[in-house]
Design a protein that fits this description.
With about 100 residues, the chain is of the alpha+beta class. About 20% of the residues lie in helices and about 40% in strands. It contains two helices and six strands, in the order βββαβαββ. Strands 1, 2, 3 and 4 form a four-stranded antiparallel sheet that branches. A two-stranded antiparallel sheet has the order 5-6. Strand 1 (about 5-15) and strand 2 (about 20-25) form a beta hairpin. The radius of gyration is 15 Å and the shape is globular. The mean pLDDT is about 85.
Length: about 100
């Protein structure tokens, strides 16, 4: 299994960013943050979104988080920045 060090997320928003939705990307996981950032602008242009604004961000991530059950939360800040957080769910270990 590859080591994943970055995650890409795109969202399409209305003009005032009051309504946003995730836009699928062909490759959401990258081996480095630099690779993700390099592809980000192109993926934003190729997104095919009909939304007025397309926002994108790359977030560094510990590969261990993506090996667990995790949720990805995002929000658009007041200044129009896409913010991403990861929340790993604790793993249950069965014992006798």
């Amino acid at each position: 299994m590859e080591h994943i060090a970055a995650f890409m997320l795109l969202v399409g928003c209305s003009g005032d960013a009051s309504v946003c939705r995730e836009i699928p990307v062909p490759v959401p996981a990258y081996e480095s943050l630099e690779e993700c950032r390099r592809d980000l602008v192109l993926e934003m242009r190729l997104s095919g979104s009909t939304e007025r604004r397309v926002l994108g961000a790359c977030k560094a991530v510990d590969a261990g988080i993506l090996e667990q059950s995790a949720t990805i939360d995002w929000a658009v800040s007041r200044n129009g920045e896409l913010l991403i957080t990861f929340d790993a769910e604790p793993q249950m270990v069965a014992s006798r």
